[in-house]
Each structure stands twice: as C-alpha cells, then as structure tokens.
Automatic annotation (TrEMBL):
Source organism superkingdom: Bacteria
Protein name: Alpha/beta hydrolase
A Pfam family that the UniProt record links to this protein: Abhydrolase_1
Single GO MF descriptor: hydrolase activity
Domain AB hydrolase-1, residue spans: 21-245
Gene3D superfamilies: alpha/beta hydrolase
Matches recorded under InterPro entries: AB_hydrolase_1 (IPR000073), AB_hydrolase_fold (IPR029058), AB_hydrolase_sf (IPR050266)
Sorted UniProt keywords: Hydrolase
Amino acid sequence: MNNIQFKNTSIAYTDTGKGTAIVLLHGFLENQKMWDNYVAPFTKKNRVITIDLLGHGDTECLGYVHTMEDNADAVHAVLAELRIRKAILVGHSMGGYVALAFAELYPENIKGLVLLNSTAKADSDERKTNRDRAIKAVKQSYIGFVSLAVANLFSENNRERLVEEIENTKKEALKTPLQAIVASLEGMKIRADREVLLHLTPYQKMLVLGKKDPILDYEETKAQITNTEVEFVTFPDGHMSYIENQEELTKILLQFFKKI
Ligand code: MLT
C-alpha cells in the first residue's frame, strides 16, 4: 500500500502490473479490498490502480462533505503522481459517481468507463430525503446503521447463501469512521446529474446492473442509456455484482479491457 498527500490528506492506493492503466474505485462503506479477487486476473495484461476514496480504508477524511469532485481530484492526484496520462475507470456505485465527476473534470485523462451498479443520474428528491434520514440514523446508532446498510446491498435471495461474504463486507464497512459516512452521504446527495456524459463522450462505456438491486431501480437506471452507445450488462442479483456474480463479471470486464 502506498500513499500521497493531497490537500493535507493522506490518500492510500496500490499500483500493480504493466500496460494500459485500469483504476478501480470502490463504493460507499467499501475500500480497495473489495477488488482483492480482481487484481490478479486484471494485472495479467494491465496496470491496476486501486484507491481508497476520501474517509474510506486507509485514506483520511478531507472535511465534513466529501463531494464527488473532491474524490475525483484525489484520484487525479494519484494518477499525476504515477504519471499516468490515460486510464480506464471502473467505479462501483459511489465509485461510479466519482468516475463520472473525473470524466467531466479530466476528459483528456480517460480512456474507458465502467459504471458498476451505479448511475449517472443525480439523487431524486426522495433519495435526498433518505440521505438525511441516513445521516440521522448513523449518528444515533453507528453499528445498527452500518449492519443494515450492508445487508441491504445484497439481493434478498442471496442473504443466506452469502452469509460469510456479508459478514466480511460488514467488517470492512465498520472501519469507515462516522465522519466519513456522513461526509459521503452529504457528497452523494449534492452530486450533479451527469447523464449527458453517457451521450457525448467518445470513449467506450459500459453499465452493469443487477436486476434485483435493492438500491438502484433497474428499469429506471437502464433507461438512461437509451439512444447511447453504452454497452449494457445485466446480472440477476443485487447491488454487489462483484461478489454475487464474481466469475461472470471478471470475464466481462476482461473482455471490455481487451477492446480498448
Ligand atoms: C454505494 O453503494 O456506493 C452507495 O450505496 C450508493 C448510493 O447510496 O447511492
């Protein structure tokens, strides 16, 4: 694990392999460990960078609101340090929101984009209200909030089959400090709508969704790629395709990287 200083904040990352760079960005309450099973297959042909986003894993908090743009700037600082000019970005959920902010801020540095269980849409009013509820809930009961939030990421039919994986995800999530949870919820709440990027950007893009995602409405999220060139992949399960559909997802991502 390496780190750089960005705005007086330590940002943790890993850098393995050679070739076109792939940057893997985790979601809310996760950290770069989520990619543990992906780094080995991906580094056969590519250079793989994993980054702990603000307040997650071994990266420190930057403030009380972590905007998607702050996170994108931190990602950009890591790539600048590594002298990587162009990269393929893969973002899981909140990591996808960060990848989109990066795509908007640094269009010359992006070569491909994968939104994994993520969306280019901004929060609806209902989701914004839910963010405020979540902020209250986590302040009242940190452990209760994290446990429930993690269980809710998996499709219901997988909650028995994947007991161990859910426990593991919870254990990692509980490393995220309260300040980071609140700052991320605030940042996600105010994020911009970036659907236009799905239409107007020249590089290859892919959207991966789980049909039973308890967090993202499948039909509504899928609708945003109508009349775009974005490749689309559906899995039958929840928000955690990287666990629930690991083998298939690995294959699909490798195929996507090969094309670029
Ligand atoms: C995530 O998994 O990163 C978040 O739950 C996404 C969100 O809340 O919008």
